[in-house]
Design brief:
Blueprint: H1 22-29, E1 39-40, E2 46-47, H2 53-82, H3 86-114, H4 117-129, H5 132-135, H6 141-169, H7 175-204, H8 206-226, E3 243-245, E4 267-269, H9 290-317, H10 323-348, H11 355-374, H12 379-414, H13 421-449, H14 454-474
Antiparallel strand pairs: 1-2, 3-4
Helix pairs in contact: 2-3, 2-4, 2-6, 2-7, 2-8, 2-9, 3-6, 3-13, 4-6, 4-8, 6-7, 6-13, 7-8, 7-10, 7-12, 9-10, 9-11, 9-12, 9-13, 9-14, 10-12, 11-12, 11-14, 12-13, 13-14
């Protein structure tokens, strides 16, 4: 709420403002064999890998931060309704949260050129966690929206910095798995804590839930700041090393003495201020190749609108006994789908295979929620049958949406160069969060303006999601094998 193409970076330049190139890292460390928990690139240089301390810290920080952020996306609309705001006000809380998220994401690329991504992650965690206590002051809509806007700023920082760090910390050939495990850290808190929070609100009230969310978000502050803590905070270089041998060609970082006193060694400062092919840091979002990214973005938009609607309004649309079970299933299936898609993309090679089929699954499941809410199997009157129907719809939607999340993000990384990783992270998250907020706003506005039931509003989103599929087919989507 994220590794890259296996092309070898320039030996004296980094691929991001926060992480030196693999070749530069090897030169600085004075060894050619990967350390424990690292992955070897085809050129023999070391990448941090999925078992590294930094990647595990990133997963822990992500779990804590999203454990604070995600449940609130379902609880705050309930809080707004509790204050008498109606469906429109409930949807507005999510929409404003996501609007400030996207506005922050637009600027985060520039922020990451000046501030280490780990510090940005920690700062975002602070802005997500601490303001949760502010909700308890009043349920009045203006105040609730203002607190949501502040937390959206933190969420924007966290989503871009987190997925960019996940991408940088994984070695070549691990792109899908890195994003899959990052997706687990994002989705597992939702699977456990969203239904638990909905249940806790009914049992003990809102204030304890707000307090627990604040505490969990604050836990992410030190965890996030600890990622890459042993490196120069300005550029990600090791603190005690500022120069190293200049590689003269392939294999220049092979075994043998290195350093300023080594025979024949030439030393020079390792440049980490820009990525290959750039003149001053990551390529901005506006410089991304639209032609290559149109298909993943298009297929992501409508299903995420449906996700935003379901996460915001299922607690209101379903009966008390059905809502926690459906949310638990949906969140767990999101995590499983995202992880499984990552494993498949690495093992089979290529990406983009799941995008259109998964969008179709999302449309089907959204339509099922519309029927569950308004037909004979409705949870309001259908008892156990209604709960089973809601859980089945949640399972299908979650698996499809999880795989779609991972596959679109991996495809976007595959189709662009390593100098665009931060920009891709920002673009994907902006797309996701814009659509998420739009889905919640659209559902609330349609239901309140036209006096429709929430299930009927789900039906509108199902039609929109299905309408994307012919357009995607016209684009002749093919898996990408770049990188």
């Amino acid at each position: 709420m994220s590794t890259f193409p296996t092309r070898r970076p320039h030996p004296t330049r980094s691929t991001s403002p926060d992480q030196p190139s693999a070749a530069a890292a090897v030169a600085l460390e004075g060894r050619s064999e990967p350390a424990s928990g690292t992955a070897a690139t085809p050129g023999g240089v070391a990448a941090p890998g999925l078992a590294s301390r930094d990647f595990l810290l990133l997963l822990a920080a992500t779990f804590a931060v999203f454990g604070s952020a995600t449940p609130m996306l379902s609880i705050v609309p309930l809080w707004a309704e509790h204050g008498g705001s109606g469906h429109g006000g409930a949807g507005a809380t999510t929409a404003v949260h996501m609007a400030t998220t996207v506005a922050t994401q637009i600027a985060t690329g520039r922020i990451l050129r000046r501030i280490p991504a780990s510090w940005v992650l920690g700062g975002g965690a602070l802005l997500i966690g601490l303001p949760c206590l502010g909700y308890a002051l009043t349920a009045a809509l203006p105040w609730t929206v203002a607190v949501s806007a502040l937390r959206g700023t933190g969420f924007g920082l966290v989503t871009v910095a987190g997925s960019a760090l996940a991408a940088r910390l994984a070695g070549p050939g691990q792109r899908g798995r890195a994003l899959g495990w990052y997706g687990v850290a994002v989705g597992l808190p939702a699977a456990v804590l969203v239904p638990a929070a909905v249940w806790a609100v009914a049992e003990v009230g809102f204030v304890p839930v707000f307090s627990a969310s604040a505490a969990l978000g604050m836990l992410g502050v030190p965890l996030g700041a600890a990622v890459l803590a042993g490196r120069d905070p300005s550029r990600g270089r090791p603190r005690t090393r500022t120069s190293g041998p200049v590689a003269s060609g392939p294999g220049a970082s092979g075994p043998g003495p290195v350093g300023p006193d080594a025979p024949g060694a030439r030393t020079a400062p390792v440049r980490t201020d820009s990525a290959p092919g750039t003149s001053g840091g990551p390529v901005p979002v506006r410089g991304l190749p639209v032609r290559l990214l149109a298909a993943p973005v298009l297929l992501l938009l409508a299903p995420v609108c449906a996700l935003g609607s379901l996460m915001s309004f299922l607690p209101l649309a379903l009966a008390p006994q059905a809502a926690p079970a459906a949310l638990l299933t949906l969140s767990a299936a999101l995590t499983v789908g995202r992880w499984a898609a990552g494993e498949w993309s690495d093992r089979r090679g290529g990406t983009g295979r799941f995008m259109a089929p998964c969008a179709a699954l999302c449309a089907l499941a959204t339509a099922a929620f519309a029927l569950v809410g308004g037909g004979p199997a409705a949870p309001e009157g259908g008892g156990a049958a209604g709960t089973v129907a809601a859980v089945a719809a949640a399972l299908v939607f979650g698996l499809g949406m999880g795989a779609l999340q991972n596959d679109t993000l991996v495809a976007m990384f595959h189709r662009t160069g390593p100098e665009r990783h931060a920009a891709i992270s920002a673009a994907w998250n902006m797309t996701f969060d814009s659509a998420y907020g739009a889905g919640a706003l659209l559902t609330g506005a349609v239901a309140q303006t036209f006096s429709l039931s929430l299930p009927a509003a789900f039906g509108v989103l199902a039609v929109l999601t299905a309408a994307v599929l012919p357009v995607a087919a016209a684009l002749r989507l093919r898996p990408s094998h770049q990188g």
